[in-house]
Design goal:
Helix 5 packs parallel to helix 6, helix 6 packs parallel to helix 7 and helix 8 runs parallel beside helix 9. The strands form 3 sheets. The protein has a 6-stranded mixed β-sheet with strand order 3-4-5-6-7-8. The chain has a 6-stranded mixed β-sheet with strand order 9-10-14-11-12-13, with helices on both faces. The protein has a two-stranded antiparallel ribbon with strand order 1-2. It is globular. It has 302 residues and is an alpha/beta fold. The chain starts with a strand and ends with a helix. The chain contains 9 helices and 14 strands.
């Protein structure tokens, strides 16, 4: 739904003609393009018109915004999620050999038992979406069962980029408050009992403003420690509209989540070098380069 280019402010998906469109969520984001959630919802409604009548909308039943689209689709509709009424419903069945065990029910009937090598509820939902699309395309459940355990995810999504001195360093693209919250929850599930230190770069055109001020604060509450890094291109944002990192850090600290902010990436690395201990998980959240922090960490810990 983000804009196509600096010279074309239409949503990217208006350039696509999908036979199958998967909608994972409809939330407010991209405040530089959309004034409010209503404008984003209208963009998605227009997108639905591009799906042919013989095509499919595959929508997340667990997300209210995505679920609302199903009533407006001019095509066939399938829903997925953990909700009881989802056409493709997942039931979590614990963990085994490092994989989430996920039972799939299609139209209320058992369809497959999957081992998912990805952590976090959001990744299980993405798995359900992929399974739904594969099922619609008549892929046999046995083929999905066989191939899924070999999938190791994609770059910059819970990607382990370094393990040194017993410390695990993770790179993730999360920048929207929902993504931040779900990624922290996924890290806690994947590495239970370990201290999760979160380094966050406010970089997107919305997260650098105060429109997500409270939502970001709440998204960090389950972390073991939080550092807020430099505000990307802060000089372009009027002071009264900037994300108030000090307010977030102070609120978290009052709630017993140690939190600080800095404009100096090297300070972050020095802090990790001095304070990180074997067993810690360092979760770096950024949709950009974070001032070269990845190479600086490799140099400091390699």
């Amino acid at each position: 739904e983000y804009d196509t280019a600096f010279f074309d402010k239409r949503a990217k998906f208006f350039h696509y003609l999908p036979d199958i469109a998967v909608v994972t969520s409809v939330e407010f984001d991209h405040g530089d393009i959309y004034r409010d959630l209503g404008e984003i919802e209208r963009a998605f409604l227009f997108m639905l018109r591009q799906i042919p009548a013989s095509g499919w909308l595959v929508a997340c039943a667990d997300d209210p915004g995505a679920a609302r689209l199903t009533a407006h689709a001019p095509c066939q509709v399938a829903t997925y999620g953990f909700s009881d009424g989802a056409d493709w419903r997942g039931v979590r069945a614990g963990q085994h050999d490092g994989c989430e065990q996920l039972a799939i029910h299609r139209q209320g009937r058992p369809w497959a038992e999957l081992a998912v090598p990805l952590a976090g509820r959001h990744n299980l939902l993405n798995t359900l979406a992929a399974v739904a699309v594969a099922g619609i395309l008549d892929v046999a459940p046995e083929a999905i069962q066989e191939s899924l355990p070999a999938f190791r995810g994609v770059r910059r999504r819970m990607e382990v980029f370094l393990e040194a001195n017993g410390i695990t360093f993770i790179d993730d693209f999360a920048h929207h408050p929902t993504s931040v919250r779900e990624t922290i929850a996924a890290a806690k599930a994947r590495w239970p009992g370990r201290l999760i230190r979160v380094l966050f770069e406010p970089r997107s055109n919305t997260t650098v403003t105060n429109r997500f001020q409270d939502a970001l604060r709440d998204a960090f509450r389950e972390a073991g420690e939080v550092w807020l890094g430099p505000l990307h291109r802060a000089e372009r944002i009027p002071p009264g509209e900037r994300l108030d990192r000090d307010a977030i850090a102070s609120a978290l600290s009052r709630d017993c989540v140690p939190a600080r902010w800095t404009d100096d990436v090297d300070e972050l690395v020095r802090h990790l070098r001095a304070e990180a201990r074997p067993g810690d998980v360092i979760l770096i959240l950024s949709n950009g380069a974070f001032g070269g922090i990845y190479d600086r960490i490799r140099a400091a810990f390699g």
